[in-house]
From TrEMBL:
Residues 19-103 form the TonB C-terminal domain. This is Protein TonB. Interacts with outer membrane receptor proteins that carry out high-affinity binding and energy dependent uptake into the periplasmic space of specific substrates. It could act to transduce energy from the cytoplasmic membrane to specific energy-requiring processes in the outer membrane, resulting in the release into the periplasm of ligands bound by these outer membrane proteins. It is a single-pass membrane protein. It is found in: Cell inner membrane. The keyword Transmembrane helix applies. Gene3D superfamilies: TonB (3.30.2420.10). Belongs to the TonB family. One of its GO terms (molecular function) is energy transducer activity. One of its GO terms (biological process) is protein transport. Keywords: Cell inner membrane, Cell membrane, Membrane, Protein transport, Signal, Signal-anchor, Transmembrane, Transmembrane helix, Transport. It holds the Pfam family TonB_C. It comes from the Bacteria.
Length: 103
């Protein structure tokens, strides 16, 4: 019988950084799942992401800026942020976030 994986303790260590614009207001945030392999190995780390929010409030693009350790948490972090939603502003906005993964 498998037990549920713990969710990542995603800490907003980096605030949304948006040049000369108001920060988008989140309406839906999905926490990343902690990868099973990382749980078994006791691995912790972080992923720094940059994302684009469309005028409709949905995340349209996500890219990884930095991750430690590499190739461990990136997929989970990107998958989660792609599901986030923000108050629709009618204009495209960009943001940056750091998600920390700790057990």
């Amino acid at each position: 019988m498998s037990r549920p994986l713990p969710f990542a303790a995603a800490i907003l260590a980096l605030a949304f950084v948006l040049p000369a614009q108001a920060q988008p207001k989140p309406t839906k945030r999905v926490e990343p799942q902690y990868p099973a392999e990382a749980v078994r190995a006791g691995t912790t780390g972080f992923v720094e992401l940059e994302f684009t929010v469309g005028g409709d409030g949905k995340v349209s693009k996500v890219s990884v800026l930095n991750a430690k350790p590499a190739r461990t948490f990136e997929s989970s972090a990107v998958r989660a942020v792609k599901q986030w939603e923000f108050v629709a502003s009618g204009a495209e906005q960009r943001g940056k976030i750091r998600l920390d993964f700790s057990l």
